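Notes from hallway chat w/ T.B., transcribed later so I don't forget. T.B. wanted the structure written out for a chain they're using in a teaching module, and asked if we could keep both sequence and structure tokens in one place. Agreed to drop them here.
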Amino acid sequence: MTNFFCRLVGVNRGQKFLFTTWTQEMSAPYRRCDRTFVMRVGGLKAVALGRYHRVLADEDAAMMHVFRTSGSPMVRGDADA
């Protein structure tokens, strides 16, 4: 299995011609790339290039990275304590 990827992605209208971002797979093996290079090739399309560096344990770990949570879910009433 290769860690490099190249894919066509959608971008917003005001996006720069060339920029970097992060990429996270939302299905197994839940790989993550913290530095994905994106280059516009048309109005709302771009080519994304990168290399996955980390494999996350499961879907919950992947979702925590996407939403940047601490990993400890807040139970209703915890904030008031």
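Follow-up for T.B.: The radius of gyration is 16 Å. Might be a good example for the class.
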